[in-house]
Amino acid sequence: MDIESLRNYCINKKGVTEGLPFGPDMLVFKVMGKMFALASLDAIPLSVNLKCDPEKAISLREANENNILPGYHMNKQHWNTVILDGHLKPDFVFQLLDDSYHLVISGLTKKQQQELKDLDE
Question: Which residues are the signal sequence here (predicted)?
């Protein structure tokens, strides 16, 4: 998967914005102001940090030990670094992105969740 595929998938989700708050080499995707994906633009191969349920994070790391690692520079209990070197199928990566997005949404206040729901209506 390349950065354009990743970016297009993320930016087309409801309520998502992108930015470079940590410098020119870290593209951050937020939903309602909360981070759900951070892509390292200078990493070869491309990698992305994604939020994950702690129990699921451990099982994903065990099943994909070369491509899913504890989140680099993140809370390693709640974040994974996913290495996008072609070993993980795009549909699987998109599911991980969806999981991260929905996990962040579930942590929003009821007011923020309503604001998100009201977007584009």
Answer: none
